[in-house]
Amino acid sequence: MASDSNEAIFIGQSEEPDGGHPQFLNLKRANRHGLIAGATGTGKTITLQGLAESFSQQGVPVFLADVKGDLAGMAMAGSPDGKLHEPFTKRAAEIGYDDFSYADNPVVFWDLFGEQGHPVRTTISEMGPLLLGRLLQLNDTQAGVLEIAFRAADDEGLLLLNLADLQSLLQWTAENRADLSKKYGQVSSASVGAIQRALLQLDAQGGARFFGEPAMEIADLMRVEEDGRGQVNILAADKLMQSPRLYSTFLLWLLSELFEALPEVGDPDKPKLVFFFDEAHLLFDDAPKVLLDKVEQVVRLIRSKGVGVYFVTQNPVDIPEEVAGQLGNRVQHALRAFTPRDKKAIRAAAETFRENPDLDVETAITQLKVGEALVSTLMEDGAPSVVQRTLVKPPRSRAGPLTAKERAIIRSISPFGDKYDHEVDRESASEVLAAKAADAAKTAEAVEQKGVEEVRKEPRRTSSIWEKAGKAAVDAAAASAGGMIGRKLSGRTSRAAPTKSAAGAAAGTIGTELGKAIGFPGLGRFARGLLGGLMR
Q: Strand pairing partners for 330?
């Protein structure tokens, strides 16, 4: 009998002459990352689904991207009426998976576009110039100008939340490029214009929805249910895949946020989170060297934060050697030798496994049937196991998409609807720069009419820190309260907290103003987090 345990996840059973042996993924080594590879239609999605639901059963939260819509079925138990019931039960009996039974998973749906799940947002500041440069496909010169714009925003205490803030910042950068060039380095109007055009293209692709507030909190991806199961976070990526650069940049941002937010834990008994990166080749296609170095660094070091990263791709050579060398757990489905590149991939895949004298790996890769894979995982002592030809276990949840009604029901019972489904728009760079421009125009007009000395006697035009904080709090409270009223009228129960939203808005304004007041670069973001915590 083979099944999951508190120490290991059952993958499948090897096909040896003596009946084979169960193949397991050691939970203590699951944060040493992994690879699931194979040609289209060979069973990668089923393997991913089976691993993800087993991690969840062991209390490990999971994040994965659903690029075809098939993985959404994890929210529902499989059914004896399903078309795959017979082959699944036959496979379970064949590999000794005696406690196989259908079961659902605690799924939360996310969607950058907010259509098939809760909106996923981050702020322009949190994304940073490096990833934004990748997203906007900027050359080195343009990326340098974007870096200068971010640095100037920090020094000016400007809060960058959404694309409107970045567009306003770039306009301000162009207008003040002479002064900025003296302080930070050359800023050309051509480079600023190129960045602005790239922003227009991003906006046209729907990228603006990704930037704003409330921003995603990493802790909300790492919930464990009361029954001990880890939350399964499924990102709807079928539409997102039409913008592959946005998809890959988002997932890299998420990895970076996990790396920065989580504490060091060394090698825990099981991972704190497992992250499946489907269509992984998109992360590396046309990526500049500095970005590849960052990916390698994150993958290498995030292990000690208790996070396991599993790359899912058709061809193992899509993963750069520096990253592939970090992937200790490997499930290789069939590859087809149609082209010289295919043959190279087969040789490369075969060479990554610990040799099995009874198995010709290079030949076996081309002969694997659907649902078969070559499996090698890290053992208790950290050494890779001998590669085995393995029949992969069937999943317990539905293998296929959800109906729109089923998805809506799952989303309606999610604990995050009131937190993320309604955007908050508080004062940030676009409003501050607009106010500065209006203030400057009014002051110039007053000076022309009354003279400098008279204008100096007049009250200040710009609001104080506390006036701005109060206004931000009132606006946030009104927005939250309005959302509550709307949900009451529609018959939905609300758990929104207007006072909490108001405190956050006030803290953000105070943080920005303090950063400007004392001239400490970067203090705004630190103070926003600190004051936000204190005022809650």
A: 35, 376
Among 324, 326, 327, 359, residue whose Cα is nearest residue 345: 324
pLDDT digits (tens, 9 = 90+) for 282-297: 888 877 787 788 888 8
CB–CB of 392/47 below 8 Å? yes
Q: Does 185 score more than 50 pLDDT?
A: yes
DSSP SS3 for 352: coil
What mean pLDDT is reported for the chain?
83
Q: 62-66 and 273-278 as β-strands: parallel, antiparallel, unpaired?
A: parallel
Question: Which of these, 507, 515, 436, lies nearest to 153 by C-alpha position?
Answer: 515
E strand or H helix at 330, and its extent? strand 329-332
Residue 476 structure tokens: 């946030």
pLDDT above 80 (res 452): no
> Buried b vs exposed e over 26-57: b needs ≥16 C-beta within 10 Å?
bbbbbbbbbbbbbbeebbbbbbbbbbbbbbbb
Pick from 386, 342, 306: nearest CA to 38: 342
Paired tokens of 197: 């055009």
Cβ atoms of 524 and 514 within 8 Å: the answer is yes
Pairing of strands 22-26, 107-111: unpaired
In terms of DSSP bridges, do strands 107-111 and 388-392 run parallel, antiparallel, or are they unpaired?
Answer: unpaired
Q: Give SS3 for 279.
A: coil
**What's the CA gap between 411 and 417, in Å, rounded?**
8
> Which tokens in the block code for residue 349?
């895949």
b (16+ CB within 10 A) / e for 420-444: bbbebbbbbbbbbbeeeeeeeeeee
Distance CA 104, CA 119 (A): 23
Is residue 264 within 8 A of residue 304, CB to CB? The reply is yes
Q: How far apart are CA 307 and CA 1, in angstroms?
A: 30
Buried residues in 254-273 as b, exposed as e (16+ CB within 10 A): bbbbbbeebeeeeeeebbbb
- Residue 307's closest CA among 272, 278, 277? 272
d(CA 238, CA 243): 10
**Cβ-based neighbour number of residue 182 at 10 Å:** 10
